[in-house]
Design goal:
Layout lengths: L8 H5 L2 H10 L9 E6 L3 H12 L3 E6 L7 H8 L4 E4 L6 H13 L4 E4 L3 H9 L1 H4 L4 E4 L2 H13 L5 E4 L4 H24 L7 E5 L3 H12 L3 E5 L3 H9 L3 E2 L2 H7 L2 E4 L9 H4 L6 E5 L9 H7 L2 E6 L2 E5 L5 E5 L5 H4 L8 H20 L7 E3 L3 H14 L9 H8 L9
Parallel strand pairs: 1-2, 1-4, 2-3, 4-5, 5-6, 6-15, 7-8, 7-10, 8-9, 10-11, 11-14
Antiparallel strand pairs: 12-13, 13-14
Helix pairs in contact: 2-3, 2-16, 3-16, 9-10, 9-16, 16-17
This protein binds nicotinamide-adenine-dinucleotide (NAD).
Length: about 425
């Protein structure tokens, strides 16, 4: 089959960890008999996760976690495979996106692999009879973990959910490097303008913001960070970024990128202070970080000077350029494909091992949000190192003894 007939061909080459899991489990099919409902950004690398779960025997029902990030060729290809059904298509509206997720849940999946807690929250809120039979779930993003935590605190989660986002193998790589690189690359491609020499304002210095700010500086930008958490603000300062309020940053920024997980981080009082040509982009999960209604109300006119850019002309004649409608810029811009394949490889490998562990091992876990056992995270890290042909040292017996010997009797002191 040529690459053009198979939209997953290139991604398969760059997802060695997922491929190793598929290879290892395709003969014994440990997930046979289970139906897995998956919500994620549907592009070629996510297609490799669908394929790996299916190779391990699962029936896979997949949908989107954001209506605008779907690649139609990938969906059509997967939907044609036995044991795989798509509940998503390219160009779906927000209403169709919601309806498709409900339709998937009506198929009564045994397990939910989620992004943004879309399926888990809808299942619990609107399909209580299905929630009673779901055996478990996994959540891959920060925003979804926040929702799952709120559900757990309210006592409404009906099944155990692993917090995939909170593992080192997810957030140290996906959030920091994946979002960092792909957000900046997509700002640059969408606008066809430089990052170097520009003042890039990053709102939020969590895992994603840290990656964006670090990489923007690497590309030659002046970097400014805004925060609400004093320790994160101090960390950004010590990492060499300028830290200030959004009020101050609005006056000096050229490119603004939000990655906070909350709403209205950039709002009217900030639009009023921005220079002509300011570029606004969001890398956080939901399209609420830039106050879009406030921007539309403030503007005198709105045009589309280039695909993926909405230009708001202010009453005093300045242009404020919004990228990708304020949705995830690395996933919904005109040329976006999300994170680089090698990065999503390990994130999706964590999703695979989540389903594998909760479905094939009896942990006796009740409903709730759980940390993923460290051995699973370590296993994915070891697989990744293997694929990179990197050897590391092993702890020696003497070192193990030394760590256990709290009296340090062998100490020279
Ligand atoms: N674009 C992507 O592909 C991608 C990938 C992973 C995560 N995400 C999303 O990015 C967002 C951030 O994820 P993260 O892992 O960095 O989370 P995080 O919790 O590590 O960081 C968020 C940071 O934002 C700060 N913050 C909160 N409100 C703020 C405000 N009003 N102004 C400035 N800073 C504020 C918090 O103090 C925190 O330090 C989430 O919505 C997450 O789901 C996107």
């Amino acid at each position: 089959m040529s690459t053009t007939d198979d939209p997953l061909a290139w991604a398969r080459e760059y997802t060695p960890v997922l491929q190793s899991l598929g290879d290892e489990h395709e003969d014994d099919e440990p997930l046979a008999g289970y139906t897995i409902g998956l919500a994620t950004h549907m592009e070629a690398v996510s297609g490799c996760l669908v394929e790996a779960l299916n190779r391990a025997g699962a029936e896979v029902l997949f949908t989107a976690s954001e209506p605008q990030s779907t690649h139609g060729d990938v969906v059509e290809y997967l939907d044609d495979q036995p044991g795989i059904t798509a509940y998503v298509w390219e160009g779906m509206t927000d209403e169709e996106f919601d309806a498709a997720q409900h339709e998937l849940l009506e198929r009564e999946p045994d397990f939910l692999l989620d992004d943004g807690c879309e399926l888990i929250s809808k299942c619990v809120a609107d399909h209580p009879e299905v929630a009673e039979t779901v055996l478990g779930g996994g959540e891959q993003t920060t925003a979804g973990i926040t929702r799952a935590e709120a559900m757990d605190e309210e006592g409404v989660l009906e099944f155990p959910v692993y917090g995939v986002n909170d593992t080192p193998m997810k957030h140290y790589f996906d959030n920091v490097h994946g979002t960092g690189e792909s957000a900046l690359v997509n700002v640059s491609i969408t606008t066809n303008t430089v990052i170097t020499g520009e003042t890039v304002v990053v709102a939020g210095y969590g895992y994603c913001g840290r990656g964006i700010a670090r990489k923007a500086r690497g590309m030659g930008a002046q970097t400014v960070v805004t925060e609400v958490e004093p320790r994160k603000a101090l960390e950004a300062h010590m990492d060499g970024h300028r830290v200030m309020s959004m009020d101050e940053a609005a006056e000096i920024g050229d490119i603004f990128i939000t990655s906070t997980g909350t709403r209205d981080v950039i709002r009217r009082e900030h639009f009023e202070k921005m220079g002509d040509g300011a570029q606004l982009a969001n890398a956080g999960h939901f399209d609420v970080e830039i106050d879009l209604d406030g921007l539309a109300e403030y503007a005198e006119s709105v045009t589309e000077p280039r695909e993926g850019i909405t230009r708001y002309t202010t009453p005093d004649g300045r242009h404020v350029n919004l990228l990708a409608d304020g949705r995830l810029v690395n996933l919904t811009g005109p040329a976006s494909e999300g994170h680089p394949a090698e990065i999503i490889d390990t994130t999706h490998a964590m999703m695979f091992v989540t389903a594998y562990d909760l479905l094939t091992r009896d942990h006796g876990l009740g409903p709730g949000l759980y940390a993923i056992p460290d051995r699973l995270d370590r296993d994915v890290a070891e697989r990744k190192l293997d694929t990179l042909d990197i050897d590391i040292d092993a702890v020696t017996d003497a070192q193990e003894q030394y760590a256990d010997d709290w009296r340090h009797e062998d100490s020279a002191f």
